[in-house]
């Protein structure tokens, strides 16, 4: 089961050595393209959208490694939710006019 806070990144441990921290990775993941920037994983930090389950580079999502949210929803999913709410509101407004 995947959780929203699965992030893949390179971190430096206390000895000064780079340590790869990966979640749910396999051999093919290095060249896998999932982010809207159309660039592959290639070891760059990524986070998974809780709505569409798309993996996005932290830099593309404008998230700092030091401030990774517990739950992440990508901009595309946030925009689609906003559009649905806005269209529902406009439909309700036109219905109200007919009822008056």
Q: What is the gist of this entry?
A:
With 100 residues, this protein is an alpha+beta fold. The protein has a domain at 33-84: Zinc/RING finger domain, C3HC4 (zinc finger) (Herpes Virus-1, 2-Layer Sandwich). The chain is built from 1 helix and 4 strands; from the N terminus they run ββββα.
Any key phrases for this structure?
single chain, 100 residues, alpha+beta, Herpes Virus-1, 4 strands, 25% helix
Write the layout of secondary structure elements.
Layout: E1 7-12, E2 18-21, E3 46-48, E4 55-57, H1 75-99
Antiparallel strand pairs: 1-2, 1-3, 3-4
Describe what you observe in this structure.
Its main location: nucleus. This is PHD finger protein 13. With 100 residues, the protein is an alpha+beta fold. It has a domain at 33-84: Herpes Virus-1, CATH 3.30.40. Helix content is 25%, strand content 16%. The chain is built from 1 helix and 4 strands, in the order E-E-E-E-H. A hairpin with a 5-residue loop joins strand 1 (7-12) and strand 2. The longest helix has 25 residues, at 75-99. The model is unreliable at 1-5 and 10-25 (pLDDT under 50).
